[in-house]
Design a protein that fits this description.
Layout lengths: L1 H13 L10 E2 L2 E2 L13 E3 L16 E11 L2 E11 L2 E8 L2 H11 L3 E8 L10 E10 L2 E11 L5 E11 H6 L10 H4 L6
Antiparallel strand pairs: 1-2, 3-4, 4-5, 5-6, 6-10, 7-8, 8-9, 9-10
């Protein structure tokens, strides 16, 4: 009889608990759940395999990156959407964070916690051309979402105003930290300043 209860108890321990299974992501793209096979090849294209930081040829074989130029979610057009998978499970989402996406994201996840503004001087022409970074963060279990708006002058002394939303599993981000995922979008990276 005790063995029967022990088997039931062990089965309950190994089954998912509904309070812990709250899904986090962006629309249909769920961190820890979505796989590359679930993506529409009409919209998503696989990108070059990332390499280990500091190398030019040592690949990060556990990582796959897919990009969509544009997808629709909740009536919002999401541009330049990057989905990053570790062992074929989604662990990072990144895209520009325009006002329409902001409204839909806040509706799904609630308001984020504002972080202190940061002012940087990237333009060497003087301190009168700063870059201002404003950000909000959402902590949803292991997943952290970070929205950053950069406005001001970049290192090329060009005036820019851009924003970025990144959602990532912190535990997977830590074990994949040797992989170079800094510049998923080279066009955006030219103006982007990492917070």
């Amino acid at each position: 009889m005790v063995v029967k209860y022990l088997i039931v108890f062990l089965a309950l321990l190994s089954s998912p608990v509904s309070a812990q299974s709250k899904r986090t992501g962006l629309g249909p793209f769920t961190i820890g759940v979505s796989t590359p096979d679930s993506l529409s090849r009409t919209y998503f294209r696989e990108q070059a395999e990332p390499v280990v930081k500091g190398t030019i040829a040592l690949p990060c074989t556990h990582i796959r990156i897919f990009k969509a130029d544009e997808v629709q979610w909740a009536g919002v057009s999401v541009r330049k959407l990057f989905l990053v998978f570790y062992d074929n499970r989604l662990f990072q989402i990144t895209c520009p964070y325009d006002p329409a996406l902001q409204k839909a994201f806040v509706q799904q996840h609630g308001a984020g916690l504002p972080r202190p503004d940061r002012k940087l001087t990237l333009c060497q022409e003087g301190a009168d051309k700063p870059m201002l970074l404003r950000s909000q963060v959402w902590q949803m279990g292991d997943v952290r979402a970070l929205a950053v708006e950069a406005s001001g002058y970049n290192a090329q002394c060009q005036q820019v105003r851009e924003s970025r939303l990144t959602l990532a599993s912190q535990s997977i981000l830590a074990i994949s930290s040797e992989c170079d995922l800094e510049d998923l979008d080279p066009d955006f990276a030219r103006n982007w300043v990492k917070p």
